[in-house]
Every structure is written in structure tokens, then in C-alpha cells.
Amino acid sequence: MSTPFPTLLPPPGPSVLTHPLPPSTTAPDPAIPLAFSEALSVRIAVYVDEQHCRLSTEIDADDPRSWHWIVYASVSGPKSNTNNNTSGSTSDFSNVPPSQPQDAAQASEQRRPSGVKLPVATLRLVPPPHAPHPKPGSVDGEGGAWPVSHNEELPSSYDVPTAVHDGHEPYVKFGRLATLQEYRGLGLGKLLVVTALEWAARNVEALQGEGGGVGLEGEGVAREREGVVRGEGWKGLVLVHAQKGVEPFWRGVGFERDEGLGEWMEEGIAHVGMWRRVELEGV
User: Fold this and answer.
1) Which of 9, 24, 40, 69 has the fewest CB atoms within 10 Å, counting from its CB?
2) How far is CA 250 from CA 174, 230, 258, 272, 276, in A?
3) What is the pLDDT of residues 81-98, one digit of tens each?
């Protein structure tokens, strides 16, 4: 099998909030990048169809301001090998574009022919600032989140401190990691995480918070949080709100669970907070 290369889609902007759900059989708004539609198709297959999460919340206010990675498989002809593929077709990762932002941008201008390249895995990286962490024991936000100002000794722009995070250092957040069922076991999830971490370490300025709050206003996140982000700058801290069942995967790519964040439920699935720090280049 040829080596896969994730394609990077820079923050696609507010047009993606108008993406039809469920995806329409007609072409979406041309302002919506094709790469986002393809990433969304993987997310829906995994989170909605397989895990029975709500379709209505699959696109959220973080999507317009996030960086999105997508892995494609070349698909053609009848199935001729096992290769963990149950889709009835052969697939490899030849002719998959390298991880360069312009690849996805160019792809959005020219819709790919059906059946040539299949999106099979995706991941997004959300820059700071972020909404407060869910409270331990909360269910789908009921029971609340940690308040932005959780005690009188800290400014309102600080988050809950734990043994891992001091409550105010800016961090980036991974989310929406998904791989189609028949393409699991090929290391695509690890490839996406490693690729995104390496990209972030090389692109610190893009993650320093300028404009990073766009998309958060609709969720009522305190704007003073943005002041902390801009005042201190991102130093390499990365968070994931991981499904508890895939905690071993995230440990395998260097993340450690933060016991101070506890456990909470989202869409009937237990979640935990996990952190990792990356060494920044040129800082």
C-alpha cells in the first residue's frame, strides 16, 4: 500500500455553517470547500451513523475557524485483496496529495469526479480561545460547564486549574477524529494526529489567537478569554476531550489523562480530558 498523505484545509470560514444536514444530493454552496464536505461525510458516517450522535450538532461554531485534515484512498475496480476493506472495491493511497494548504483550496474550486478519491479519515484542530470544560458528571451540557470564573481569586478569563493545566495558558484542541470502519487498523488516526502536531509546531503564529475567537460569540464565550490568549501566546499545549473508550489510542500518541477534569457524558458516551505538549519550532 502506498504511503497516505493527509490534505490540509485551512479555516474554511462561516460558509460551512450553512452546509445542509443531512448532506444534500445536490451540490452544496460553492463557497463551501469540497474538502470540508468530504471531512463531514467521514464524521457523519462515524459519529452519526455508527455511534448514533445527533446529526444536528455535527457542525458547530468551531468548524469555521478550525484547521481540518483529510486522508483519501484511491478507489477503483472490484475487490481483489483483503486489506481490511469490506467496501467491495480495491483501494490504495497512491496519488493522494501532500499535506499542503493549497491542495484543499484548489480542490474546493474543482469538484472531484465521484469514485476517484474516497475520504476515509479526518481530524480538526481548533485554535484558542475555548469554551470552559464540561463539569464532571454533566450530561450533554446539562449540569453545566466549569464557569469561566470559578473562584474569586482568579480573573474571569481563567479556566479551572488542574495538576496539568494552570487554568490560563492558551491551548489548541483536537477533535472530530474519525476513520471509516473499513479503513481502521491502518494507522490513519495516528498519522493524522502526528501530522497535525508537526504542523502546529511549525505554525505557531497561526495559532496565537488573532481572530481565533470568530465562531465562539454565538456560544456566549466570554470575550475577555481572548485577551489572555493574545497576551500570553500558545506555548505548545494541546487538549483533546477524548471518548473514554479510545483513551488508549490517545495515550499511544503521547497524551495523558487529566484526572482533575473528571468524566462527563456527551451523546451517551463517556469523555475525559487529555493533554500533551509539543516542542515549538523557532520559538
Assistant:
1) 24
2) 11, 28, 12, 11, 10
3) 334 433 334 455 533 444
